[in-house]
Amino acid sequence: MSGHSTYVPKSPVMKWFESRLPLFGLIHSSFVAYPTPRNLNYLWTFGGILSFMLVAQIVTGIVLVMHYTPHATMAFSSVEHIMRDVNYGWLLRYLHANGASMFFIAVYIHMFRGMYYGSYKAPREVLWILGVIIFLLMMATAFMGYVLPWGQMSFWGATVITNLFSALPIVGEPIVTWLWGGYSVDNPTLNRFFSLHYLLPFMIAGVVALHVWALHVVGQNNPTGVDIKNPAKDAVPFTPYATVKDAFGLVCFLVVFAWFVFYVPNYLGHADNYTEANPAVTPAHIVPEWYFLPFYAILRAIPNKLMGVIAMFSSIAVLVFLPWLDTSKVRSAVYRPLFKQFFWVFVAVCVGLGYLGAMPPEGGYVIAARVLTAYYFIHFLVILPLLGLFETPRPVPASIADAVLAKHGGGAAAAVAMGAASAPSKK
């Protein structure tokens, strides 16, 4: 599905370089001439937003590392040093800390959009699985990064989460000992987490490159779920059409990001983490960062420790099998009335689990968490397979152009005809 490159080097130097390494031709075919469905909405801008946020996190992280000391007796003080003494250190710290939250906001929107429009269905199964791998790497990176300030919630969060592995038979205790670097969370633990937190973003960047490659092989999905059949009518060049929309979406996202950074920089954090870690004092209520809360609620909903750990990891692993669990032949929820209703119930369940993950594990909160946990797995393992068998979808348009014309009426015909002249054609 990659666009046919029409890039022709002008200067002799560029011709020489392109004949030996066709880098600019690759860029041109992938990000200029690449045929993009003409009906994409602003939910498709979050791929570009996530790419920007990944680069921003890596850049701010590298600068912060220049002033951070990964030692249990000095880590907290070095973070305070960054906030108080380093030029614009407060800005870098708030950009990085809030950037993690904004990264997860964008990735959750990106994932729910993929679920709603069936972007995981054939031939995009590998594309979806790579996305789940990126999500897992993000969670590992964020967890290890949260430990680095060595505040109270950092220390006790690391103690609780790493202890979960001890529930695994035979291999559990050796894994915990390796993660700790000893027999408790201490300086070796901090060094391990610092090393991995620095390494994993570059692994994420590598998987993102594979993700983008897979996307350009199979092509982008779109709100109708219909593939491009006639590039002259169904598609427009990626540049300037998609790039302008992506740029506008990014600007809007950055306005929200800037509001958090400059007006409420600590809103998404936890007050206890501004107290230095003390192994002798346990916080009254240990909670992870907000983006882990749904999975934390699933973990606590199961009374058995081992089964809780299995349920928590299974809640992520089940996403890998989503392309095969959804048996419907129709991709987009736009043409699946029953699926659309169950989808929004599922979104409400995820939000509810997030709320319950922040509540004390007692009374009605535990009962509610168990009900929502059960529904979470029922959605994937029961509802989706049965919907594919019993749901009657609405008629799907024959092409993207037909869907655009049906939505906007005959007035769109002129726009389609004008776009056909500028769109790339495949021979």
UniProtKB/TrEMBL annotation:
Residues 228-398 form the Cytochrome b/b6 C-terminal region profile domain. The keyword Nucleotide-binding does not apply. It is found in: Membrane. Keywords: Electron transport, Heme, Iron, Membrane, Metal-binding, Respiratory chain, Transmembrane, Transmembrane helix, Transport. It comes from the Bacteria. It holds the Pfam family Cytochrom_B_C. PROSITE patterns: CYTB_CTER, CYTB_NTER. Binds 2 heme groups non-covalently. The chain crosses the membrane at residues 43-69, 90-111, 126-148, 155-180, 200-219, 247-264, 306-325, 337-358, 364-390. InterPro entries: Cyt_b/b6_C, Cyt_b/b6_C_sf, Cyt_b/b6_N, Cytb/b6-like_sf, Cytochrome_b, Cytochrome_b_C_euk/bac, Cytochrome_b_N_euk/bac, Di-haem_cyt_TM. It is a multi-pass membrane protein. Its cofactor is heme b. Residues 13-224 form the Cytochrome b/b6 N-terminal region profile domain. Component of the ubiquinol-cytochrome c reductase complex (complex III or cytochrome b-c1 complex), which is a respiratory chain that generates an electrochemical potential coupled to ATP synthesis. The main subunits of complex b-c1 are: cytochrome b, cytochrome c1 and the Rieske protein. Belongs to the cytochrome b family. This is Cytochrome b. It comes from Chelatococcus albus.
